[in-house]
Write a structure and sequence with these properties.
- With about 350 residues, this protein is an alpha+beta fold.
- It has 3 domains: about 110 residues, no CATH class; about 80 residues, Orthogonal Bundle (T-fold); about 120 residues, T-fold (Roll), CATH 3.10.520.
- It is built from 6 helices and 18 strands.
- The longest helix is centred in the C-terminal third of the chain and has 23 residues.
Length: about 350
């Protein structure tokens, strides 16, 4: 793929005033089926280009390891016969291991083995229909994160049921963005911003004259908001762009792994925290959990800040940690997860 430097709004150039002053330069390409952009701060153009190339190469490597669209990907080559262990590459194993940890902590609201259900819905959506009950029931029998065995010493992955497969659609982009950021920090380029679609990771050093990277987020359920990101990740999830409407009923691309049913209520979530893969997966899990179960879910992830909004029949409901992801920066131990969720009536919702 061609790595293209971009002159974006907000780019900063100081070369005319002082050749040693760092500049912000933006690069972009298509990878993982989405737009990927990298902003890098460095005095020399060659250093900025090299850092961006390194980041993009890491994103492409993650795609080659995790993609379920590419038949040649490492994920697609995993054996689907129960009891057969396969040695996995470092990226595939790390993504799988983290996915299983999050599945356990979210009690299956995020489940990387959802692949058979996703495929059933993907086929039905392409035909403009809904998957039939028998198809979904058959798919559910091949889903269950508890039936994945991983061996960190041997770096193997083994499924406990025939026909199982992993799907990284809910974690892969955040995982890739985090890996790209980590790679740039390792080579001495800590001032950067990586965006893999809506999953962003900011390096630990701010751009010149700024407290961090100013990010504008939109979930389709409320007014867009801005936040300043530094040494953190942020992810959003929702059905703003991906859904199917059948007989007047909107069916999200987000599926509850426990029921195999797509979400019908408009829901969006935003998560901010120290790891891009975790933010990505948590945003999906929060959409499944909704406002009523959000507090219990987030209690298992100290240091992460989140909000979730659902449009119900009688109005919009919103829940968030204190502070929420768009609030001012705070230390990890200052994030408060309310013990219980108060669900206000729609009439009491503040107008934004």
């Amino acid at each position: 793929m061609l790595l293209v430097p971009l002159a974006l709004v907000g780019s900063v150039a100081f070369a005319q005033a002082d050749p040693a002053q760092p500049e912000v330069e933006s690069f972009a390409e298509i990878a993982m089926g989405v737009d990927v952009s990298v902003k890098v701060v460095a005095p020399e153009a060659s250093d900025r280009l090299a850092a961006a190339q390194l980041a993009m190469a890491e994103v492409r490597a993650c795609d080659e390891a995790l993609s379920d669209w590419q038949a040649s990907s490492e994920r697609s080559r995993l054996p689907r016969t129960a009891g057969v262990a396969a040695v996995a590459g470092e990226r595939l194993f790390a993504a799988t291991a983290r996915s299983i940890e999050i599945a356990r902590a979210t009690e299956g609201r995020f489940d990387p083995t959802i692949s058979p259900i996703v495929q059933a819905w993907r086929t039905a959506r392409a035909q403009g229909t809904l998957p039939d009950v028998a198809t979904l029931d058959a798919a559910r029998k091949r889903v269950g994160w508890q039936d994945v065995t991983i061996d960190a010493c041997m770096r193997t992955i083994m499924f406990g049921r025939d026909g199982m497969a992993v799907d990284f659609g809910g974690i892969g982009k955040g995982f890739a963005a985090q890996r790209a950021s980590t790679a740039m920090v390792a080579v001495g380029q800590p001032s950067h911003l990586v965006a893999v679609a809506g999953d962003l990771v900011a390096g630990p050093v701010a751009p010149p004259g700024k407290p961090g990277w100013t990010i504008r987020k939109e979930d389709g359920l409320g007014e867009p908001f801005e936040l300043v990101l530094l040494g953190e990740a942020v992810s959003t999830s929702g059905d703003l762009e991906q859904f199917i409407e059948i007989d007047g009923v909107r069916h999200s691309h987000i599926i509850d792994p426990r029921t195999a049913r797509a979400l019908r209520e408009r829901t969006a979530a935003c998560v901010r925290g120290p790891d891009g893969a975790t933010c990505d997966a948590l945003a999906t899990a929060l959409c499944v959990a909704g406002v009523r179960d959000a507090a219990g879910l987030m209690g298992a992830f100290p240091g992460y800040r989140a909000s979730v909004t659902t449009i119900e029949s009688d109005g919009r409901r919103t829940w968030s940690t204190t502070p929420g992801p768009e609030g001012p920066p705070c230390a990890a131990d200052a994030v408060c997860v309310p013990d219980a969720v108060t669900v206000p009536d729609a009439a009491s919702q503040p107008q934004r």
